[in-house]
Each structure stands twice: as structure tokens, then as C-alpha cells.
Specification:
Blueprint: E1 2-8, H1 13-22, E2 27-31, E3 34-39, H2 42-50, E4 54-60, E5 65-66, H3 70-78, H4 82-85, E6 91-99, H5 106-121, E7 130-138, E8 141-147, H6 169-178, E9 186-189, H7 196-205, H8 223-227, H9 229-239, E10 248-252, H10 255-268, E11 274-278, E12 291-295, H11 306-323, E13 327-331, H12 335-340, E14 345-352, E15 355-361
Helix pairs in contact: 2-9, 3-5, 6-7
Bound molecules: S-adenosylmethionine (SAM).
The site of S-adenosylmethionine has 22 residues, from α7.
Length: 362
């Protein structure tokens, strides 16, 4: 049995716990910043490949230990079961945080942990893949965790072009979920930027596992074979639907945004499932049958931006009312909630690049 910490953006914890449970993981406990899950090693592949809301997967190495001196930190780190996890010569970078502890120099603590690991598995071989461990020393108690995902999981690999203020893929998925959109319904984003919401929706509707197009740090560890990644990749690949009957439409008035969205859709493998158009918000909205509007308007938090953005929100509200479609919307400044002129509820608050944003749906 392994115990993993699955990290997500703040505010998404309950959505993450529900998602992990829906992936068949039975032992899931929501916590601030993510969820703790317990399971067989295959759970690593399941989360990395299939979670659309997780950002990192970390494995606690051994048990927490008390430490007050650097030489003890090297010794106690070396005594942890690295040999079961890491291949000889693996390069490891340690990121330490020290609080309320005799050891307060985080850079020094990180170096000692790296030295301890090198003692256990042999010196790092230059040029090999680099893994990351997180070290937390709080009140003289040290916990060391190995990052199994590597680059944050919201980086699915397809979003290489961005327009203004792009929404992260995990945050886009969370908005789609709280809006109540389901893959059997069409979707419209009149302010799509680089198309993140529409493209993420297309991958959900096609049942493409979010991690299908990328690699993970644990592939460079001894956990690789026991986690059964190759088999899970094959299974996930075979579940992908060939096409969609719904329409997923994104529009933006900037040509560069439409171009970026087209490139992203191509890389995500959903170019044939989305319609990406250059159009002003005020142009007639598409006829889509049962649909949702899910959108991320400009935040309007820069000085002097507010009055133009107020008008924009008013137009979005008018469009939504005229369509009669349910909706989900990201708002950074509460003043714009009223500009929409809609009846709506706050669903969650999260952090987008250091800006506190709330999701509303109606
Ligand atoms: C915050 S960005 C959306 C980012 C997008 N969710 C993404 O992940 O890339 C808002 C977008 O609204 C577009 N926009 C602003 N005013 C518009 C208007 N009047 N008509 C159409 N698009 C507009 C901007 O060009 C910008 O790309």
C-alpha cells in the first residue's frame, strides 16, 4: 500500500476528491491543498494519467523524523528507503522549507538532503533525468516527499500558445464542472483567448485522459513497472471516442487569439471537434441547441480598465439571458457580478496566477 498526497489549486479540494473517487480510488481523504490517497502502486499511474484537477503527486519517503543538526539530517535522510524507489545515480534536487525549527536555513537543509540521498544510491550521473523532493522541517520534524508527477500535471502538453491572461487547464476544467456542463451538451465561449475552456471541454467529451500526451517523473524511478503505466496508457488510449455530435464553439475578436487556439486544438488532437472563430462579442451568438456558456472575461483589475470591462460584462449578461443557456463564469472583481445582471451563485474561490478569482454559475 502506498500513501500519496495529490496536490491541487486552492479551492478545488472537494472537486479533486470527487474526481479521484470517480476514478475508482477508494481511499481518498480531502485536505487543504489536495487529497491523501492510499492504494496499490497502480494508483500513481491512474492519478497522473487521468486526473484533470491534480497538479502534483507526491510520495512520502519513510516516516517523519526529528532533526536539529545538519549532520543528522544527512544521516537520517540516507537511512530512508531510497534504494526501493530510485535507480542508482539518479539526480535529485531537494526544495526545503524550514519553519519554527533549529535548522532554519532552507538552502543548507536541501543540500544535506541531496547529500543523504547520494549516500544511499550513489553519486548523481550527469545528464540523467532530475527528480525533485520536497523537504519540510516544521518544529524540528522533517518530512521528505518524492514528486512523482514531475512538471505540474495541468501542463497537458497541448497549450503551447497563449493569448492574454490564459486560464490554466486545471482551472478551466474546474469551471466546466461547476458550471454543470456535461459532455452531452454543446458549449460556447465568446471570449475564448487561446481556447483553453473549449479545448479542455473537447478532451473531456472525447474521453481523452488528461495525461495521455505527456511523461511523468515516476517513469524514471523503480515504481515505474509496479505502477503499470504502459498498460494504463494503452487502456486509456482505447477509451478515446472517435468524434463528437455536440458543438464546442469558441470566439475571440483578436486574430492572434484564434490562431493560438487553433494551434492548441491541433496539438490536443481535437481540431475537428471545435469551431474557433474571430468575432466580436456583440455579433449574434451561434445556434447550438442545448448548450452551456462557459467563459473567462478580462478581469478588469488594472487601473482605468473598469468602465470598459463593466460594459463587457453587461454584454455577456445580455447574451446569456437571450440564449437562455446555463453558464459558468470566472470573476476577479465582485463589482462585475452586478454588471452581468443575472441570477447566479458563487461556487468556489481559487487563485489564478496570484489573483483571487471566484467561479459563479447560474
Ligand atoms: C481573459 S482572456 C480569456 C483567456 C482564455 N480563457 C484562455 O485560457 O486563453 C479574455 C479574452 O476576451 C477577448 N475579448 C475581449 N473583449 C472582447 C470582445 N468585445 N469581443 C470578443 N472578444 C473579446 C480578449 O481578446 C481575450 O482573449
Amino acid at each position: 500500500m502506498l500513501t500519496l498526497f495529490v496536490a491541487c489549486a486552492p479551492g478545488l479540494e472537494s472537486l479533486l476528491a470527487a474526481e479521484l473517487t470517480s476514478l475508482g480510488i477508494s481511499d481518498v481523504r480531502g485536505e487543504p491543498g489536495g487529497a491523501t490517497v492510499r492504494g496499490q502502486p497502480s494508483v500513481i499511474s491512474t492519478v497522473c494519467l487521468r486526473s484533470g484537477l491534480a497538479n502534483h503527486v507526491r510520495l512520502r519517503v519513510g516516516e517523519p523524523f526529528e532533526v536539529r543538526h545538519f549532520d543528522k539530517l544527512v544521516k537520517k535522510t540516507a537511512a530512508l528507503p531510497w534504494g526501493e524507489l530510485l535507480r542508482p545515480g539518479t539526480r535529485v534536487k531537494a526544495h526545503a522549507v524550514c519553519r519554527k525549527s533549529r535548522l532554519y536555513h532552507s538552502g543548507g537543509a536541501g543540500q544535506r538532503v541531496e547529500a543523504g540521498i547520494a549516500k544511499a544510491i550513489g553519486p548523481a550521473v550527469e545528464g540523467g533525468p532530475e527528480l525533485t523532493v520536497a523537504v519540510r522541517i516544521i518544529r524540528d520534524e522533517c518530512v521528505i516527499s518524492l514528486d512523482l508527477s514531475g512538471e505540474a500535471l495541468h501542463r497537458r502538453g497541448w497549450r503551447q500558445q497563449t493569448a492574454k491572461a490564459p486560464l490554466r487547464e486545471d482551472l478551466a476544467r474546474a469551471l466546466l464542472i461547476v458550471s454543470g456542463w456535461t459532455p452531452d451538451r454543446s458549449l460556447f465561449d465568446p471570449l475564448m483567448g487561446a481556447g483553453t475552456l473549449v479545448i479542455e471541454a473537447a478532451t473531456m467529451a472525447r474521453r481523452m485522459a488528461p495525461g495521455l500526451r505527456r511523461r511523468f517523473a515516476f517513469e524514471h524511478t523503480k515504481l515505474d513497472t509496479s505502477a503499470g503505466l504502459q498498460d494504463q496508457r494503452k487502456a486509456a488510449q482505447s477509451e478515446v471516442l472517435p468524434g463528437l455530435t455536440t458543438q464546442l464553439v469558441g470566439r475571440d475578436h483578436i486574430a492572434g487569439a484564434v490562431e493560438a487556439a487553433e494551434g492548441n486544438a491541433e496539438r490536443a488532437g481535437v481540431a475537428g471537434d471545435v469551431t474557433l472563430l474571430r468575432a466580436e462579442l456583440s455579433e449574434p451568438w451561434p445556434q447550438l441547441g442545448p448548450a452551456h456558456v462557459v467563459t473567462n472575461p478580462p478581469y478588469g483589475i488594472r487601473v482605468g480598465e473598469a468602465s470598459g470591462v463593466h460594459n463587457l460584462y453587461t454584454s455577456v449578461g445580455e447574451g446569456i439571458r437571450a440564449s437562455g443557456w446555463p453558464f459558468g463564469i470566472v470573476i476577479a472583481d465582485r463589482r462585475f457580478v452586478r454588471s452581468l445582471g443575472l441570477s447566479l451563485q458563487p461556487k468556489l474561490t481559487t487563485d489564478h496566477g496570484g489573483i483571487k478569482v471566484s467561479y459563479y454559475a447560474g
